[in-house]
Amino acid sequence: MPHLNSKFYRYFMFFLGVAATIAYRIIVVLNHYSPRSVQIAWYIGTIGFVWYFAHRFRVENRRDRIITDLELVKKIENNENLSELERGSLVYVIKGLQTSLSKWNYIVIFVFSSLALIYGFLQDFLHLF
User: Fold this and answer.
1) Would you give the end-to-end CA distance of the chain in angstroms?
2) 21 and 45 in contact (C-beta within 8 Å)?
3) Whole-number Å distance between alpha carbons of 50 and 98
């Protein structure tokens, strides 16, 4: 029966995604100060995103494979009884969706992308900073 990653690992991946997001978005500010800082931020962001999105791909792939291999959609649509393995696997998928921190990563990406865009616009077109 599948099991969720540990809470520690899930929080680690969440903060890794946040750090990568901030590192990429801060580049627009660092461009005006230090090429070395830009380079460091780029590496942090790139390595963080590669690791984070590889993790997300693995999680989504595992969920998809469980649903497909056990034909859970068909069985639920046909109101079939589920075996213990099928029920446990469905609980795993649902708990994973309920406790996933990825939606918070999307919010962080949106907020920091918006801030970077506003800063970049002000810096490049209005020269306010």
Assistant:
1) 56
2) yes
3) 24
- pTM equals 0.80
Highest mean pLDDT: which of 36-50, 83-97, 100-114? 36-50
Number of CB atoms found within 10 A of residue 52's CB:
21
Q: What are phi and psi of 78, to 5 degrees?
A: -90, 5
- Assess contact for 67 and 38: CB atoms under 8 A: no
127 DSSP assignment? -
> Are the C-beta atoms of 55 and 13 separated by less than 8 Å?
yes
**64 closest CA partner among 19, 40, 97, 26:** 97
Contact 101, 10 (CB under 8 A): yes
